[in-house]
Specification:
Blueprint (H helix, E strand, L loop, with lengths): L18 E2 L2 E2 L3 H18 L4 H19 L2 H4 L34
Antiparallel strand pairs: 1-2
Length: 108
Amino acid sequence: MMKRKEFRTVNRILGEQPRIGPFPADQVFPWTAIALITYLICKQSLQASWLVTGLVIAWGWGTWWTLTSNKTWLSKFLTVPRVTRGYKRFYSLIQRRGRGKWAGGREK
């Protein structure tokens, strides 16, 4: 008797980057440090408003995430070359002496 092969159920989260909610887990501690340092500098030392402090914190988080993120996130900005096969005859753009006006071209 042949055994029927059944698909195994696989946990979809396996192999994924750890997350805490929508945030990558490896960014939580640096973002906390950035927020605390920015709070101490902007709010405590410079007496800035909460809006300014929040904007500087968001700017710091975004900068840190951009600099330390993995390649898969940065690869969104890199275009992948499209390779296709061409069947057109090659004509050089450099003039050759004695073979006509253009290389590969024929004068009549």
